[in-house]
């Protein structure tokens, strides 16, 4: 699939502080790419360079083949930016906000009017479109913040921690919107320090810390990269010692122990070899009363790669 | 439409909604011009001679007393005062009591003879107790006349001593043929542009307009810092528009607000039943307004480029506006002498704006405003250019 974004060797320092050091990644059309890291990891600096807000000290950003720079407008109409902080005018209505930014992107006339209506519908603000933003709730403002980024139908949508400070209902609505946009073919760069959001939305994830990408890939690739396995806990009665011995013979299983009517198994791809695990226990005379599968998460990967928790 | 124009239109909409620009740009200067005019306007009017009404009681009717009357009539012809002749002191007293005149001159019988015989001729000035300034001016005119009388007396006495003659009217007549013309003359000097002064109403209208102009244009220029504070600058920088469009949009709005404010004030203060200010040739005034607004935009742009926050820029801008205003003579007219303050005042756009309007006074053509316009454009160019470079560098960060 075509790469919409190509970020290569991005470097940025503020005085002696190295904010971003050699960040490289690509995002294909229709792909949602997560930049996962704690506060101060270099996420916002990276996307500032990608969006053309900040000039990099070294490296290059290309969006749809165009080099992005603060000194040029080339390629910028292909980018939709949703900054972390609200970037809307509170003394204008939602419609006026959208119309203003739309005109800056060269839209006008009936195209702008119809697209504004469309976006207002997508973000669920059609019935409040002529109210001043001052009168909106925090969640509504967040949705408008995203809507402005979508208005000009960008090839690449950059969302910088869009759910910070948002109530659970609005958060879910935002995540659903991102999923829908990705399904429609938009490339999405999503920065977050919420592991569960990255796991839900992102096709691929880059783990960034202290300005450097520590690892990137699909969740499965990241987990495998650090040797994390699925943890399967089976509640059972019977000869659990025999069952554990039998389970250890299954391909992919690296560990199987028993204690207090439970079998604890570490395995690759639990979803594929779970039927065989259950069959082995039954054959060993065990009676199964419950099964729990815990897949390794990005939190664990992050901890493994950086030695610290994601929310530190 | 260009991105800069789009940004300016959006900002204008925001400013109209929050009404602050309207209050600073129109209401405040208009109200203060009214107040200043009420408090200080009469002082200005007195010093420029408007509204002075005097009487004359000439009981002497000599050639010399008639010369004094003639001098006053010449001054009257120049529109500085009005003079009314009264037959006797009682009728002049009544005129004062009836508020018909502010003061009257009383020339006693024998005044003329006293002059030529080197005696002690006296002109009495009787004034209304409620018009002390006008009375003092009347006394000053009489005093100036008496200095001329004394000089003439000295010349006559010296000649008489040298020629060993008696001082008689015939002797005096033999000196010049006409003793009165030998002694006195009245001359009105045409003041240069440097010392011209506006009438009180126009002065304070213009002063308040240029003073508040700096606050008004701030609303436009500070918009850039507000965008930065409110996060919307990131969106503007991410949009496919040049960085200078953002600065340009703010400058356009500042210029528009300034021109709207100044034009409204010029028109409103010129209305006869309001302040009836006389700004001068309209095209000349328009040049000064445009140049003055540009200089204010330049200076406030420079302030914005140096500040870190809109609040900081607002405070810094207010201090600069007040200091420049005081130095530029918007609260009280500054002297035009050779002292340091008089020189420093021309380091402010305010002084040049007021100077330009003074140059337009007395029905001068619009071209009279060109020197001041040029000076204001220099202010605009220098400060605007530095501000632009600094703001652009700020946007690159």
Residue stretches of chain A low in confidence (pLDDT < 50, at least 5 long) are: none
What class do helices, strands and sheet pairing of chain A give? Answer: alpha/beta
Series of H and E elements of chain B: HHEHEHEHEHHHHHHHHHHHH
**Major sheet of chain B: size, sense and barrel closure?**
4 strands, mixed
Number of helices of chain A: 10
Could you please describe the fold and organization of this structure?
The complex is a heterodimer of chains A (312) and B (397). In chain A, strands 6-7-8-3-9-10 form a 6-stranded mixed sheet, sandwiched between helices. With 312 residues, chain A is of the alpha/beta class. The model of chain A has no long low-confidence stretch (mean pLDDT 88). The radius of gyration of chain A is 24 Å and the shape is elongated. In chain A, helix 2 crosses helix 3, helix 4 (138-150) packs parallel to helix 5 (168-183) and helix 8 (240-247) crosses helix 9. Chain A has 10 helices and 14 strands. By secondary structure, chain B is mainly alpha-helical. Helix content of chain B is 68%, strand content 6%. Chain B has helices at residues 3-18, 20-47, 63-77, 89-97, 111-116, 132-163, 169-176, 179-183, 200-221, 223-230, 232-238, 243-270, 282-306, 310-327, 340-344, 349-360, 370-396; strands at 52-58, 81-85, 103-107, 123-127. A 4-stranded mixed sheet of chain B has the order 2-1-3-4, with helices on both faces. The longest helix of chain B is centred in the middle third of the chain and has 32 residues, at 132-163. Chain B is elongated and about 100 Å long. The A-B interface holds A 48, 51-55, 70, 73, 76-77, 79, 81, 83, 85-89, 91-92, 96, 100-101, 103-106, 148 and B 1, 3, 6, 10, 13-14, 17-18, 230-232, 234-243, 396-397.
């Amino acid at each position: 699939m075509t790469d919409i974004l190509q970020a290569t060797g991005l470097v940025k320092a503020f005085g002696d502080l190295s904010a971003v050091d050699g960040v490289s990644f690509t995002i294909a059309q229709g792909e949602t790419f997560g930049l996962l890291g704690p506060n101060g990891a270099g996420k916002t600096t990276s996307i500032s360079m990608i969006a053309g807000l900040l000039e990099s000290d070294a490296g290059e950003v290309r969006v749809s083949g165009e080099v992005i720079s603060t000194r040029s407008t080339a390629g910028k109409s292909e980018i939709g930016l949703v900054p972390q902080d609200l970037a809307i005018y509170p003394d204008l209505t939602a419609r006026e906000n959208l119309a203003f930014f739309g005109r800056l992107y060269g839209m006008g006339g009936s195209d702008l009017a119809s697209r504004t209506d469309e976006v207002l519908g997508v973000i669920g603000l059609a019935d409040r479109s002529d109210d001043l933003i001052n009168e909106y709730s925090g969640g509504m403002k967040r949705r408008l913040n995203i809507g402005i980024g979508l208005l000009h139908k960008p090839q690449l949508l950059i969302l910088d921690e869009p759910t910070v400070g948002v109530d659970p209902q609005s958060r879910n609505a935002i995540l659903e919107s991102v999923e829908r946009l990705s399904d429609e073919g938009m490339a999405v760069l999503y920065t977050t320090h919420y592991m569960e959001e990255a796991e839900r939305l992102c096709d691929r994830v880059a783990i960034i810390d202290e300005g450097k990408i520590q690892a990137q890939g699909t969740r499965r690739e990241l987990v495998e990269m650090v040797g994390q396995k699925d943890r399967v806990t089976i509640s059972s009665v019977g000869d659990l010692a025999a069952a554990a011995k039998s389970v250890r013979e299954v391909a992919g299983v690296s560990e199987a122990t028993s204690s207090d009517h439970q079998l604890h198994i570490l395995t690759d791809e639990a979803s594929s070899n779970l039927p065989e695990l259950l069959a082995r226990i039954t054959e060993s005379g065990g009676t199964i009363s419950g099964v729990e599968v815990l897949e390794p998460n990005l939190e664990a990967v992050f901890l493994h790669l950086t030695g610290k928790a994601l929310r530190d | 439409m260009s991105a800069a124009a789009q940004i300016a239109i959006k900002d204008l909409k925001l400013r109209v909604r929050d009404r602050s620009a309207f209050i600073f740009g129109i209401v405040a200067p208009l109200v203060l011009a009214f107040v200043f005019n009420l408090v200080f306007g009469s002082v200005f009017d007195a010093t420029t001679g408007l509204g002075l009404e005097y009487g004359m009681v000439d009981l002497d009717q000599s050639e010399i007393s008639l010369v004094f009357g003639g001098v006053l009539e010449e001054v009257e012809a120049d529109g500085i005062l009005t003079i009314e002749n009264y037959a006797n002191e009682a009728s002049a007293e009544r005129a004062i009591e009836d508020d018909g005149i502010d003061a009257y001159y009383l020339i006693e019988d024998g005044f003329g003879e006293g002059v030529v015989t080197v005696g002690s001729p006296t002109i009495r000035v009787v004034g209304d107790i409620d018009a002390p300034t006008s009375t003092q001016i009347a006394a000053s005119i009489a005093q100036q006349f008496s200095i001329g009388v004394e000089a003439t007396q000295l010349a006559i006495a010296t000649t008489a001593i040298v020629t060993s003659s008696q001082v008689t009217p015939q002797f005096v007549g033999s000196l010049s043929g006409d003793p009165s013309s030998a002694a006195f003359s009245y001359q009105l000097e045409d003041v240069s542009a440097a010392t011209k002064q506006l009438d009180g109403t126009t002065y304070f209208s213009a002063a308040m307009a240029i003073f508040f102009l700096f606050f008004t244009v701030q609303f436009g220029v500070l918009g850039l810092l507000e965008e930065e504070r409110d996060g919307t600058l990131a969106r503007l920088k991410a949009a496919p528009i040049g960085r200078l469009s953002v600065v340009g949009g703010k400058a356009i709005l500042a210029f528009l607000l300034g021109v709207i404010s100044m034009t409204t004030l010029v028109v409103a203060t010129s209305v006869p039943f309001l302040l009836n200010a006389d700004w001068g040739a309209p095209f000349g005034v328009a040049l000064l307004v445009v140049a003055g607004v540009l200089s204010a935009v330049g200076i406030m742009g420079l302030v914005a480029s140096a500040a870190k926050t809109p609040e900081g820029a607002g405070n810094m801008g207010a201090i600069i506006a007040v200091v420049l205003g005081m130095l530029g003579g918007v609260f009280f007219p500054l002297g035009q002498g050779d002292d340091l303050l008089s020189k420093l005042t021309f380091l402010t756009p305010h002084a040049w704006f007021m100077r330009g309007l003074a140059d337009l006074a007395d029905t001068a053509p619009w071209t009279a405003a060109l020197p001041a316009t040029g000076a204001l454009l220099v202010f605009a160019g220098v400060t605007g250019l530095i501000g632009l470079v600094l703001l652009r560098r700020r946007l690159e960060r």
